[in-house]
Write a structure and sequence with these properties.
The chain has 270 residues and is mainly β. It is built from no helices and 17 strands. The protein has a domain at 34-202: AttH-like domain (AttH-like fold, Beta Barrel), CATH 2.40.370. The protein has strands at residues 33-43, 48-57, 62-71, 74-83, 92-93, 96-102, 106-111, 119-126, 133-134, 138-141, 148-167, 170-174, 179-189, 211-221, 227-237, 245-251, 257-259. The radius of gyration is 20 Å and the shape is globular.
């Protein structure tokens, strides 16, 4: 018995297939399967920051995105959503554009001038000095249950930013000396996607299961001009019997990670 495969995409020309299907579909029908990119461009003095992200929900037939700017205590955000079909490989949602210039090294983010908020930007992320680093594969079953709730790959990267941003009619130049940048890319089954199904136990991000989550890639420049990054992933669910998850370390231009042994968060207010 045969089945009808999904539509062909330009990616199908390559020799990268992992399942017996076209690139238009993923390996399973779980509605929480998601592929996401997100990141930030921040001025070192903290006066301006840009946040952005794009999500592809293959089994929900949706792609959405956000782009925001903060200035001191002010914030503006543009959100957009579209139907995924018939252009699942087009990483554009309304005025928000995500473009890969050089895989694993350079990407471009654009927010066109729009009628929603008085912001726009065009920025290139340059990660050519420090490569991206894979994180530990996230795999968790439902708390007090058996359903696979998280099965997720992710890599992160730090780099430089260059371009411009407009806020309230004022154009600011983004240069590598005054700005830094981070980004990540993840895909798989994940928690917190859409409303919780009515016939299953709530996931780990439900109000009945509060969690403490810290995740941060950070770029550093030594006095001699050499660069490195530090990253940590910490997850602790506030329920009896749950052991916290942690990984991270110092990451260098040579692709070598020097792992941390552990992390004990100590938060305080000034």
């Amino acid at each position: 018995m045969s089945k009808v495969d999904a539509m062909l995409l330009p990616s199908d020309e390559g020799f990268n297939h992992q399942i017996a299907e076209t690139f238009a579909v993923v390996s399973q029908s779980d509605r929480s399967w998601t592929e996401k990119v997100c990141g930030a461009f921040c001025k070192k003095d903290g006066s301006l920051a840009i946040g952005w992200g794009l999500g592809k929900y293959t089994n929900r037939n949706v792609m959405d995105a956000y782009a925001g700017v903060s200035r001191d205590v002010e914030q503006w955000t543009v959100r957009a959503s579209r139907m995924l079909f018939p252009t699942p490989e087009q990483t554009t949602v309304g005025p928000i554009h995500y473009e890969v210039i050089e895989p694993l090294k350079k990407i471009r983010l654009r927010l066109e001038p729009n009628d929603t908020q008085p912001i726009a930007f065009d920025v290139i992320f340059d990660g050519s000095i420090i490569p991206p680093f894979m994180e530990n594969h996230e795999h968790r079953r439902q708390v007090f249950g058996f359903r696979t709730e998280t099965d997720l790959c992710r890599y992160h990267q730090v780099g430089r930013a260059e371009g411009w941003v407009i806020v309230d009619g004022v154009k600011h130049v983004i240069n590598p000396d005054e700005w830094f940048a981070t980004r990540d890319h993840s895909w798989g089954v994940r928690y917190g996607v859409g409303n919780e199904p009515a016939d299953v136990m709530p996931g780990i991000d439900g109000t009945m299961l509060p969690m403490h989550f810290l995740w941060s890639p950070m770029r550093f420049v030594r006095a001699d001009g050499s660069e490195y990054s530090i990253h940590h992933f910490y997850l602790n669910i506030n329920i009896p019997g749950f052991e916290y998850t942690f990984h991270g370390g110092e990451e260098g231009p040579d692709g070598i990670r020097k792992p941390f042994k552990g992390l004990k968060p100590a938060l305080r207010s000034n």
